[in-house]
Design a protein that fits this description.
The structure holds 2 protein chains of 2 kinds. Chain A is mainly alpha-helical. Helices cover 93% and strands 0% of the residues of chain A. Chain A is rod-shaped. In chain B, the strands form 2 sheets. A 6-stranded mixed β-sheet of chain B has the order 8-1-2-11-10-9. Chain B starts with a helix and ends with a helix. The N terminus of chain B is likely disordered. Classes of the chains: A mainly alpha, B alpha+beta. Chains A and B meet through helix 9 of A and strand 3 and strand 8 of B.
């Protein structure tokens, strides 16, 4: 569909208008010449006409207004027009002159010539119309028009057809006027000639019918031409329409379909782009969220690592504490062992001591009995002095025995005292140790507490870390579990320690009580021994100086009384000692029991401590593993975070590209819509002319008026 | 573990950090817990409301510590040892709550979580958002941290109005 440039079309149009003007002026000139020819005579008029024609054409050609080639068949057509016009005018003139020839004046001749000129002019107008019609038809010759802008031509045809129609109307009006004038003139002439009405009517009818016949001839020729042209145009229009239907419509349809497809594609593309961009945004958001989570996770992992480190340090301290604790427990055990040993030996000593106390008691009793006997005897010495020496000897011997026994007693008590002191020392040491153990237990408790807290925090971090923390949360739970177990076992140990402490205190109390008794027994024994020594001394002295002894019966009596008293005292002391010994035995039993349970407790403690240490070691190991895990989690999270950020960057770049693609899409859509608008304009421009050609146009109406 | 325990009931399970206060087990969503501390030395603030015990310096961040016993229990049972501080985030703020003992992390399933009855909520008891049932043990009360924060913010105001009424 090639549209010629408007300038070319305008130039062509101007050319045609000029040509038509030329033709019109030529025709007018010819008409004037013919008129002249009628006035001066037919032969002379014909000569003037031919000369004038040749002159005008030569002048036009000399002026170079148009090319002969361009004019095509114009001279021939012109000649034909001139010939036909001349013929017609000649015929009318002859008819007029022959019919109405009279000796009328000059005025009548002038009037006649005016009527003839009117007829000629209208005839010439008819010729011009005829010619223009032919030209018009020729313009729409399909062979000539091939390759031209048919729609432009078709559009242009309408104003031409309108002007043609105006011209035809003018020609018809002119012709009618001329004929009417001639008819009127003829009637006036006939009346002047004195024709009867019948003759005048016959002549008028003849004239009118001749005119009508001529006019109908011309009209028929024009109508035939127009009919042909219209047929051509119809065929052409049908062809154009068919072409439009076949080619243009198909083309337009294809274009429309293509555009629709393009639209659809664009829509799909835009939709996909939108979808893509939404997805991008979603992914970006996800990745950003992931990145943020990762960051949190990384942060959490870092914190976790820090916490785990401190936890590990705490566990290390706990392990160290456990070791110290173990050491202490071992010492405790050893000491408990030693205490038990001591106590056992004490028991053994005590048993011997008890026996010796018994013996001492018996001896003291014997001594007292002996002394009583002695005193009795001594009292009887006065009555029977002969046996005094013997008695004195017996007293001495008995006193010696008593003294020896007392010495043994004192030694035994001494041993007991020292053993008691040792035991007290040991048990006091035990008390101190248990205090220390209590301190260590506090440390362990604290460490366990801290570990528990750390484990709880680790669990919290693990829960916050989400999927990555899942594995770690198990470790954290285990650590917490272990910490709880440690706390439980620490509590158990604390209970044991407290039990040991109270037992130790009880043992110490008992030992202290026993020790008081022992001291008292020792003092009394020592005193008793001294008294016995005195008695022995007195008895020894009594032997050589019996006389003195007898003589000093009073003092002897007094001494004896004293001895008996002392012996009684000793007896009481010994009895007391026995009681003390028994109470001490009870205390010792208590202490022994305490120490035994202490030993058991120490054993348990050690076992506990060992279990604790093992648990701590386990915790330590777990913590180490967790630590490594956390660190590797941190590293992995770091990598993932890095990946996330890279991904986010990539997505950003993608989003940017998408944005530019969308901009391109939008431009495409705009271009498409403008193309669509153009095509629609084209469609609306091409369809109406096609529609007009099928319906009867101005041309058809024009031809319809003519016959 | 979302904004509040009531919305979290829609999820399959929610991790709760549990702690003990005056013999009762309370819990907060673990997502809101920053960490749990052994209550450090507090710097008391002059002219602070009664519930705010003081400030602690947690690795360079100053955090107000609220005595949860004074906020929740107030009377009846005597105050426990409160040697743990649960550091939480709520309403964009970081605050420490002093509690007796941190117990454990519990993964509570959705069907074990029960929102607090409407009546109690309407009556103004909004600090407990939900309850986690436990077999053979007393239920865990899930605290609404935002409401707690509101209570802390409003504590001075209410104390002032009390004073005014007393005056």
């Amino acid at each position: 569909m090639r549209v010629r440039p408007p300038a070319v079309v305008a130039a062509e149009l101007m050319d045609r208008i000029r040509r038509e003007q030329l033709e019109a002026s030529l025709a007018s000139g010819l008409a004037a010449s013919i008129h002249l020819a009628f006035v001066v005579g037919i032969v002379r008029g014909s000569i003037v006409f031919v000369a004038a024609s040749v002159l005008v054409v030569a002048l036009w050609r000399f002026l170079g207004r148009f090319e002969p080639t361009e004019l095509g068949g114009l001279p021939r057509r012109m000649a034909r027009a001139v010939f036909m016009g001349s013929l017609l005018s000649l015929g009318v003139a002859i008819l007029g002159v022959e019919t109405f020839h009279t000796d009328a004046g000059l005025s009548l001749a002038t009037g006649r010539s005016v009527g003839v000129a009117g007829v000629v002019y209208s005839s010439l107008g008819a010729v011009v119309v005829f010619h223009r019609t032919r030209l018009l038809c020729h313009r729409f010759d399909p062979d000539r028009r091939r390759g031209d802008g048919s729609i432009v031509d078709l559009e242009r045809m309408e104003p031409w057809a309108k002007s043609l129609s105006r011209e035809v109307r003018a020609v018809v009006a002119g012709s009618a006027l001329a004929v009417a004038w001639l008819l009127g003139d003829g009637v006036v002439q006939a009346l002047a000639q004195g024709w009867g009405p019948v003759r005048i009517t016959a002549a008028a009818v003849l004239f009118a019918s001749g005119c009508l016949w001529l006019t109908s001839l011309l009209s028929r020729a024009i109508a035939a031409e127009l009919k042909n042209a219209i047929a051509d145009l119809r065929a052409e229009a049908a062809g154009v329409e068919a072409r439009m239907a076949d080619g243009l419509t198909a083309e337009i349809d294809a274009l429309g379909a293509g555009m629709r497809r393009g639209d659809e594609l664009t829509r799909t593309l835009t939709h996909e782009r939108d979808q893509q961009s939404i997805e991008y945004a979603h992914v970006e958001r996800l990745v950003r969220g992931l990145g943020a989570r990762m960051e949190t996770s990384i942060h959490g992992a870092g914190e976790l690592v820090t916490r785990l480190e401190s936890s590990r340090r705490a566990t290390g301290i706990a392990v160290l504490g456990g070791e110290a604790f173990d050491r202490h427990a071992r010492e405790l055990e050893t000491e408990a062992e030693a205490s038990a040993h001591w106590l056992e030996s004490l028991e053994r000593t005590d048993r011997g001591f008890g026996a010796s106390v018994e013996r001492i008691s018996a001896a003291a009793r014997e001594t007292r009995g002996g002394l009583a006997e002695l005193a009795q005897a001594m009292r009887g010495v006065d009555t029977a002095p002969g046996s005094t020496t013997e008695f004195a000897r017996g007293v001495l011997a008995k006193a010696e025995i008593g003294r020896a026994k007392f010495a043994a007693t004192v030694a035994g008590i001494e041993a007991i005292r020292s053993a008691t002191e040792t035991a007290e020392l040991v048990i006091r040491g035990l008390g101190a140790r248990t205090q220390e153990i209590g301190g260590i237990l506090d440390v362990i408790d604290d460490v366990g507490d801290q570990t528990s807290l750390l484990a709880l925090n680790a669990a919290i971090i693990a829960a916050q870390a989400g999927e990555h923390g899942r594995a770690f949360s198990v470790v954290a739970d285990e650590i917490r579990d272990l910490a709880d177990r440690v706390l439980v076992s620490t509590k158990e140990i604390g209970g044991l320690i407290r039990a040991v402490q109270s037992e130790s205190e009880r043992a110490i109390d008992a030992i202290e009580a026993g020790s008081g008794s022992v001291s008292m027994g020792f003092t009394l024994s020592t005193e008793a021994g001294r008294t016995l020594d005195e008695i022995a001394e007195i008895a020894r002295e009594t032997g050589p100086r019996f006389e003195t002894f007898v003589a000093s019966a009073g003092s002897r009596e007094t001494a004896l009384q004293h001895a008996v008293e002392l012996a009684g005292n000793v007896d009481a002391a010994v009895a007391e000692l026995a009681v003390a010994s028994r109470s001490r035995e009870g205390a010792r039993e208590g202490a022994l029991r305490g120490v035994r349970s202490l030993r058991g407790a120490a054993g348990e403690l050690r076992a506990s401590v060992r279990a604790h240490a093992a648990q701590l070691a386990h915790i330590d190991g777990d913590l180490g593993a967790a630590f490594d895990d956390a660190r590797s989690i941190g590293v992995v999270l770091g990598d993932q975070g890095q990946g996330c950020f890279e991904l986010a960057r990539v997505i950003e770049v993608g989003a940017e590209r998408l944005q530019s693609l969308r901009a391109v899409d939008e431009e495409l859509a705009v271009a498409q819509s403008s193309v669509r608008a153009q095509v629609e304009a084209l469609l609306s421009a091409s369809r109406p002319p096609a529609g007009k050609m099928t319906s009867p146009g101005p041309l058809a109406r024009t031809t319809g008026e003519r016959p | 573990m979302n904004e509040s325990a009531s919305t979290s009931t829609a999820h399959v399970s929610v991790d709760l950090a549990c702690f003990e206060l005056a013999g009762q087990i309370y819990a907060v969503p673990i997502a809101r817990v920053r960490e749990i501390l052994t209550t450090p030395r507090l710097t008391p603030l002059p002219d602070a409301p009664e519930v705010i015990e003081g400030l602690i310096d947690l690795r360079g961040t100053l955090i107000p510590v609220v005595d949860l016993w004074k906020l929740l229990v107030r009377d009846g049972t005597p105050a426990g040892p409160r040697n743990r501080t649960v550091v939480v985030e709520a309403r964009g703020l970081v605050v420490g709550f002093r509690v007796d003992r941190a117990t454990q992390v519990v993964a509570a399933t959705a069907d074990a979580i029960e929102t607090i009855p409407e009546l109690t909520r309407e009556a103004g008891c909004a600090v407990v958002g939900a309850v986690v049932r436990r077999k053979d043990r007393s239920p865990i009360l899930v605290l609404e941290l935002d409401v707690l924060i509101d209570r802390v913010i409003g504590s001075r105001k209410s104390a002032m109005t009390r004073d005014e009424v007393a005056a």
